[in-house]
Please model this.
Amino acid sequence: MTGSAKELFPNRRKAVFFVSFVLTFQALTVLAEDAMSLEDEYLLPVEKKNSLFDLYNSRQQLPNMASHDAFSSMTSNVNDNLPYDINMMDIDIANNRQERAVEGCGDGIDQCSDPLLNNCTGPFARCIELDFGFECGCQEPYEWNTKAWTCVWKMYPFGNAASASAITGDDVTERLEVSAGIPFYRRKHTRIFIGSNGVVSFGRRYNPIVMEFPPDRRSVLCPYCADVDVSVTNTGSITYRLYDKNDANNDAQVGQVLQRASRDVETYTRAARFAASQVLIVTWYKVPKYGSDFPEIDYVTFQLVLVTDGETTYAMYIYNEMNWIPDWDPIVIGYGENWNSRTVSVSGTRGAYGRRNIGGSRGQSGFYIFRVGFVESYAQKCRNWFAGQVMEYYTNRFYYDDLPDCPCTVRRLRFDRRWRRIWGVTRNRLRCTTLNLNWNFYPMGKMCCYRNGIFVENGVNAGYAFRYHQWYSWAEHYVSDTLGKNYCCDRSNFCPLFHTIRPAGQCSRTSVFRQGGGFGDPHVATLDGKTFIFNGHGEYILINIAEVNMTFDLQARTGQADNG
Model:
């Protein structure tokens, strides 16, 4: 048999597969009470269904066959992760069970308790007893797949139902522009390429027939990188859509997708209070392998869900119907940037053929989730700075409240020697001053800012209290005050958070100085509130200050008024 296959068929694998398929079909005809056509094959459990196509590739001898010379030289390979044998009677019984479930015939028997009747199998499956028969269901987040006859991970919206864009053809790539950017590894990417061969790349177009891993000078996601050809099927499709939180008010589906993605990240990772801002969903639906002889049944369905909050990015790989006939062509499952890459255990092996070998994140079959990007934003830096300073503020809040109020206008500021002009901070008619280093408030300080001569109380241009005066210590002032202002106000929209612990305070319309003056004969009012009236003629000293570090004299001259 082996020799004749070589002569008649140059492609030995196709010849052997043809023989195995014919022998299997004959065995089913003998053992089953009713012949099962190829159209009914999809009713089998997924493990048994895949086994029909896996006879050659599993390298096992076919049991109970009249002739199996073609398989006599096969040996078992523990790395194949495929079924080792097939029991034809099990296939016949499973088919009868499924027909009962489909027909829903009720005979008063608790069919869910009967192992011969209940064929809702799998770790996440559950049997639901009905008045007439039963039905199969699944634990969340799985759903029952009647074709695969097992529980599969519930996919996100895709295709026409999600108003998604489509990719058609073989070995094609679509470019997606993301203005806000999506972090991947340590960079934000605004240009993303979606390849038909189960790959998504960042920055550069990349859609190889055979994936090289680790990727050289590439940034890629590989939910199921292989040679896909969607051009040969009428049922298969590749679709994608980007969901953005800014569109949530106009499309209810956007909010639902963002909420589910946030919930999945929180459930299956250690992220707490994760709020998705963008979700990219790419779906390969019933896509056949290139060169497949059975594209209508030899297909796979999988999905990439790329979710980010603007700082951290997670990639979820979801696998639904995985029906490719096992081959030697490698399938890559993983992600990477240059030589810093990661693949799952079945990547590159024949175990990647078939859904039951794929998945494992938090014990979830057919599902992976990876953290694939992190870019520390200034918003996050602001929150981190705030977390490090907030306790100190509330501990010393009394001292912050004791700092003097800023003068309400620049005019009053001119007569208040406690404040001084800051050099180099005059822009857009904005003038700022700082409190002179004062032993009454040591080592703290304060900044007051004015626009068009009027005090700015809040916002990006407002002043703020200093934990450490710059004249006390530039280093401590920079860490405790300047960085927070830069992160929260200048580079992000968290200025209110900054002013929570570095308040600008209120302004004061009163002056710290007493006023004096004179008029008429003259009438003189001194700084201590006394008044004098006299008709003197000559020169006088009105004010005399003699201190250790300062002397000041104010002289006045009086003369006779001109009657004319």
Remarks:
- The chain is about 20% helix and 30% strand.
- The longest strand covers residues 173-184.
- The radius of gyration is 39 Å.
- The CA atoms of residues 390 and 500 lie 9 Å apart.
